[in-house]
């Protein structure tokens, strides 16, 4: 299994993580908040189950410094390494914590690439801790969500001599920026919406700073401020910080880079005026200020500020555009700094998807005795013959979906998927493939990286299958596709159309398409009010599963037509709450749980429909299967 964990950069809100922790003692302290993003540099590894816990490296970057590590999985031995000065203290700390709290065996980690500079304020230690936590989670199916992985990484690092903050593990969220909130020892995380690309540059000032000293000086101002100077520190890291974070989130959402850059400069001014006096020796930071005030730098950036614990450690700027970003990085390098660029790209609100594929596929019997319904092959638009599920997953990959959860029927299915998406072909078979197919193999692995699996132990219908993904969704909106339908469009990928449409309303969304009156009895049918002149957006007022022809005629006609589900949905956490209630309130333990009822319950608070520019191709029954094969021939 391959794993990548990036380093992280704190854009705003440094120091507020530990400051927020002091709320445990003084309730008047304002909770902390910080905006943090993964960067492009990180740690790449392959991991596999083993009896012992070992680490080796084939990374070119580590060639000259590396020595292998090997330990038993006994917690005493691991804890001993964790509390020593060993290079492997971090990984041993996490492994010891996992071994004590979960039923796991050992693991062999091979570092395959290390592009993250160490000891430069980018949390390389937190990244390796998250990597180990994630590897155990995925190999031993611990079902931890991202916050669970972060907590274990934090606890593991606490077992070493290093002291990390709570925001360091934000690298667990990958490349996209998040806002983390620190209230006592509780953390909460919210993903941020970025409207336009932001061209960031950050650099190591290659000067000296003493983080331990800074932290010790600032911590003296907590939990109770003794004088005006200490009150100012609490105000800056509390109320003032909250205001800055709120404004930063709003500017990112509207794509206002000019105001965001100005806010960086403003945040630094507040820090200099209110926090720096508490640690003058370290926070006066002459080199940082020399570059913040440099006229050339000012002309090509919207603003800049310090990084991490501040002081003369690292510096960051928001460049005016892509060209300025390159010029600025080169200028900093010429002046003795070590710079990195980071382009924060717009992301969709929806970044996760679900496909339930646990059904028996009875209507395709006897083929489904041998082959799962979603494994049936079809010719894709590139001319390759692919299992249906691969066509669906490629479309999600193309729409930039980051994580995909497949609901499977049993462990055998999981093995099937793991073999397909995560294991290489035998050497002899690979040799016969063309260069283009070797590239396609890479794509299969990239998709495999995004996959998560959940087993639906009881087959209680579509709504029940969807509900199994509740923890995977972690309170985010998710895209849902049927596992027995393909989608095509002459213009834009249907899933991408869904993601864009959801952002306009942030309400649950159902894709629909017109059907003939005879077909209503087979599908979920909606009706409501058109919201635009081109008749693509519907405010849904009724949603009935497989209505009779009479009911449909009376209640579901819209501008002379019937509209039924197309097979793509965006579900919000509210839908999962309703599904949970429906499952709990169902008296018969074997009764099927539908999704239609749960979505219909959202009508009062807003349920939207959309007619996509595309077609759906059912493959779930013999007649539809024949049609789809014909339609997809190119
Ligand atoms: P269907 O309603 O077509 O059910 O599922 P099915 O069991 O696959 O097919 P038949 O009716 O026996 O022929 C729609 C999608 O939901 C999944 C299916 O795998 C399919 O992708 N599903 C359905 C589940 O994952 N679990 C369920 O309990 C039911």
Structural class given helices, strands, pairing? alpha+beta
Basic shape? globular
- Calculate Rg over CA atoms: 27 Å
**How large is the share of residues in beta strands?**
15-25%
Question: Could you give a quick summary of the protein structure above?
Answer:
The protein has 634 residues and is α+β, with helices and mostly antiparallel strands. It is 39% helix and 25% strand.
Describe the structure.
The longest helix is centred in the middle third of the chain and has 27 residues. The model has no long low-confidence stretch (mean pLDDT 94). Helix 3 packs across helix 5 and helix 4 crosses helix 5. The radius of gyration is 27 Å and the shape is globular. Helix content is 39%, strand content 25%. It has 634 residues and is an alpha+beta fold. The strands form five sheets. Strands 1, 2, 3, 4, 5, 6 and 7 form a seven-stranded mixed sheet that branches. It has a five-stranded mixed β-barrel with strand order 19-22-20-21-23. It has 24 helices and 24 strands. The protein binds uridine 5'-triphosphate. The site of uridine 5'-triphosphate has 21 residues, from helix 18.
């Amino acid at each position: 299994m391959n794993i990548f964990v990036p380093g992280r950069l704190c854009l705003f809100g440094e120091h507020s993580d530990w400051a927020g922790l002091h709320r445990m003692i003084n309730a008047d302290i304002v909770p902390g908040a910080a905006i943090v993003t993964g960067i492009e540099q990180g740690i790449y590894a392959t991991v596999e189950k083993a009896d012992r816990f070992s680490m080796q490296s084939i990374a070119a970057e580590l060639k000259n410094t590396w020595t292998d590590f090997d330990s038993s999985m006994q917690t005493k031995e691991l804890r001993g390494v964790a509390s020593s000065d060993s290079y492997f203290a971090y990984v041993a700390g996490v492994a010891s914590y996992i071994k004590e709290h979960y039923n796991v065996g050992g693991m062999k980690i091979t570092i395959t690439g290390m592009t993250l500079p160490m000891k430069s304020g980018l949390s390389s230690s937190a990244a390796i801790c998250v990597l180990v936590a994630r590897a155990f989670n995925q190999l031993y199916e611990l079902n931890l969500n991202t916050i669970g992985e972060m907590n274990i990484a934090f606890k593991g690092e606490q077992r070493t001599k290093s002291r990390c903050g709570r925001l360091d593990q934000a690298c667990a969220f990958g490349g996209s920026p998040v806002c983390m909130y620190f209230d006592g020892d509780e953390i909460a995380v919210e993903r941020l919406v970025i409207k336009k690309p932001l061209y960031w540059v950050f650099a190591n000032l290659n000067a000296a700073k003493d983080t331990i000293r800074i932290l010790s000086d600032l911590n003296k101002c907590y939990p109770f401020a003794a004088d005006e100077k200490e009150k100012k520190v609490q105000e800056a890291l509390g109320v003032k910080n909250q205001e800055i974070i709120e404004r930063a989130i709003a500017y990112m959402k509207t794509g206002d880079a000019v105001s965001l850059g100005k806010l960086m400069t403003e945040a630094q001014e507040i820090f200099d005026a209110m926090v720096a006096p508490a640690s003058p020796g370290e926070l006066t930071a002459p080199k940082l200020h020399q570059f913040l005030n440099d006229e050339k730098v000012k002309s090509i950036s919207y603003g800049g500020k310090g990084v991490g614990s501040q002081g003369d450690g690292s510096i960051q700027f928001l460049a005016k555009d892509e060209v300025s970003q390159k010029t600025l990085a080169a200028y900093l390098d010429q002046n003795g700094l070590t710079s990195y660029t980071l382009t924060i790209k717009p992301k969709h609100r929806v970044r996760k998807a679900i496909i339930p594929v646990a059904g028996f596929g009875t209507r395709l019997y006897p083929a489904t005795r041998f082959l799962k319904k979603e494994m049936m092959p079809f010719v894709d638009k590139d001319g390759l013959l692919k299992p249906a599920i691969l066509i669906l997953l490629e479309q999600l990959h193309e729409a930039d979906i980051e994580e995909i959860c497949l609901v499977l029927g049993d462990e055998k299915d999981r093995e099937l998927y793991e073999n397909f998406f995560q294991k290489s072909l035998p050497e002899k078979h690979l040799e016969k493939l063309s260069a283009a197919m070797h590239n396609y193999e890479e794509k299969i692995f990239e998709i495999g990286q995004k996959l998560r699996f959940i087993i639906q132990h009881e087959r209680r219908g579509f709504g029940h299958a969807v509900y199994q993904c509740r923890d995977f969704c972690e309170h985010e909106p998710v895209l849902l596709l049927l596992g027995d339908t393909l989608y095509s469009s002459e213009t834009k990928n249907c899933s991408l159309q869904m993601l864009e449409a959801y952002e306009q309303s942030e309400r649950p969304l159902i894709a629909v398409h017109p059907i003939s009156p005879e077909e209503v009895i087979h599908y979920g049918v909606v009706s409501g009010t058109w919201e635009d002149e081109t008749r693509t957006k519907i405010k849904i007022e009724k949603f009935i599963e497989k209505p009779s022809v009479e009911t449909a005629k009376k209640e579901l006609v819209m501008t002379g037509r019937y509209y039924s589900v197309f097979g793509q949905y965006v579900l919000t956490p509210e839908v999962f709450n309703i599904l949970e209630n429906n499952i709990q309130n169902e008296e018969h333990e074997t009764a099927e749980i539908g999704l239609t009822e749960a979505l219909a319950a959202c009508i009062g608070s807003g349920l939207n429909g959309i007619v996509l520019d595309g077609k759906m191709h059912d493959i779930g029954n013999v007649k539809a299967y024949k049609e789809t094969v014909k339609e997809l021939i190119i």
